[in-house]
């Protein structure tokens, strides 16, 4: 005869003999993913909210959910792999999950510029404009001087040719 298999569940304070059990293809997301909800390491951090059935994790209004290297609004338990997901992004096992204020304000993709940045852009633009005008004026002056030199040289050469031609005529 084959030996009979027995199963036991060990808890922190006792060992329980399992008399009835069933197999399942579904994962228990909280147990499997072991997410870290500790907020002490992050500035401006607020703990994430977990739904009563532990199938969803989200944040209060105005906050973004940070999970692993991703940001979203809600992550949902995927019982097929035991991970919490937001579309194609997932929170890796043991990942830190917390809520933070959105770093973008004034609409998606908008960034604030400091007063110093604005002043720097204005001053830089004015300086570039001044340099362009000075360069243009110098080029025009150089061009005019070159034309004057060429016309003076041409006149002198033409007069000498005329004088030379007159000498031979007389």
Secondary-structure topology with pairs:
Blueprint: E1 7-10, E2 15-18, H1 29-33, E3 49-50, E4 56-58, E5 63-67, E6 70-72, E7 74-78, E8 83-86, E9 89-90, E10 97-101, H2 115-169
Antiparallel strand pairs: 1-2, 3-4, 4-7, 5-6, 5-10, 7-8, 8-9
Brief description of this entry?
Helix content is 35%, strand content 22%. By secondary structure, the chain is of the alpha+beta class.
Keyword list:
170 residues; five-stranded antiparallel beta sheet; three-stranded antiparallel beta sheet; rod-shaped; alpha+beta; single chain
Structure description:
This protein has 170 residues and is an alpha+beta fold. Among the domains are: 25-101, no CATH class; 119-152. Helix content is 35%, strand content 22%. It has two helices and ten strands; from the N terminus they run ββαββββββββα. The N and C termini lie far apart (147 Å). Residues 148-170 are annotated as: Disordered. Keywords: Membrane, Transmembrane, Transmembrane helix. Residues 160-170 have a biased composition (Basic and acidic residues).
Strands, total number: 10
Separation, N- and C-terminal Cα atoms: 147 Å
Quickly count the helices.
2
Strand residue percentage? 15-25%
Structural class, judged by helices and strands? alpha+beta
Categorize the overall geometry: rod-shaped
Arithmetic mean of pLDDT: 80
The Cα radius of gyration reads: 40 Å
* Biggest beta sheet attributes: 5 strands, antiparallel
Spatial order of strands in the largest sheet: 3-4-7-8-9
Q: List the quaternary state of the chains.
A: single chain
Helical proportion?
Answer: 25-40%
In sequence order, what are the helices and strands, one letter per element? EEHEEEEEEEEH
pLDDT < 50 stretches: 106-110
